[in-house]
Amino acid sequence: MLTRKVRLWDINAHITCRLCSGYLIDATTVTECLHTFCRSCLVKYLEENNTCPTCRIVIHQSHPLQYIGHDRTMQDIVYKLVPGLQEAEMRKQREFYHKLGMEVPGDVKGEACSAKQHVDPHRNGETKADDSSNKEATEEKPEEDHDYHRSDEQVSICLECNSSKLRGLKRKWIRCSAQATVLHLKKFIAKKLNLSSFNELDILCNEEILGKDHTLKFVVVTRWRFKKAPLLLHYRPKMDLL
Length: 242
Known about the structure:
- It is a single chain.
- By secondary structure, this protein is of the alpha+beta class.
- Among the domains are: 8-81, Herpes Virus-1, CATH 3.30.40.10; 154-237, Ubiquitin-like (UB roll) (Roll), CATH 3.10.20.
- It contains 8 helices and 10 strands.
- The protein has helices at 8-15, 39-46, 72-81, 85-99, 106-109, 131-144, 182-192, 216-223, and strands at residues 4-7, 27-30, 36-38, 68-70, 126-129, 154-161, 173-177, 201-205, 208-209, 231-237.
- Strands 7-6-10-8-9 form a 5-stranded mixed β-sheet, covered by helices on one side.
- Residues 113-149 are annotated as: Disordered.
- Keywords: Metal-binding, Nucleus, Repressor, Transcription, Transcription regulation, Zinc, Zinc-finger.
């Protein structure tokens, strides 16, 4: 079987964050131009700016954070290409939680990478990708998904109706994975209310419409950081903004 070896430094420019010059962690992409950065770097940058750090295109005049999304594919690629990066990041997160005296989330406890890395031990800075790695990852995936994300960091949410046109949920308090997105919540609410489409809904936090690709962890960090649980979200019929 033919394999192609690629030097890591030849692709560094494509897997590093322009803001911190480090490898991408929690990769987040700007939907307008598709440039990718570390989530924490980009969120901090957009607190005072509304343009892309790379191409300077205006993301949004007033709410640029609504037009960025977690890029799982890019993050998986970075973890596969850079030996030891995922383990090092997990270790830093565990140390952070221990330092604050907080319980370590289930998805941070283990050090083992879900994706297998194939590194040539005889040549520093090179990675090797072949079909067998993809096959092995595919075969292992069902075993990893058996807990249905119950071992992930969890977020407590209160879903309140913000319109007289919709009814409230019978059970408005839920607890789910921090990796769930606003889109998942829209589908959940639409199913409970028997709506024809989840696209008919807007979900808000602090009276601000949330982007469908925002994870709940991102919402908590950027809009509920210094407030007590549960995370309060409101839903209403979708409004077309001019």
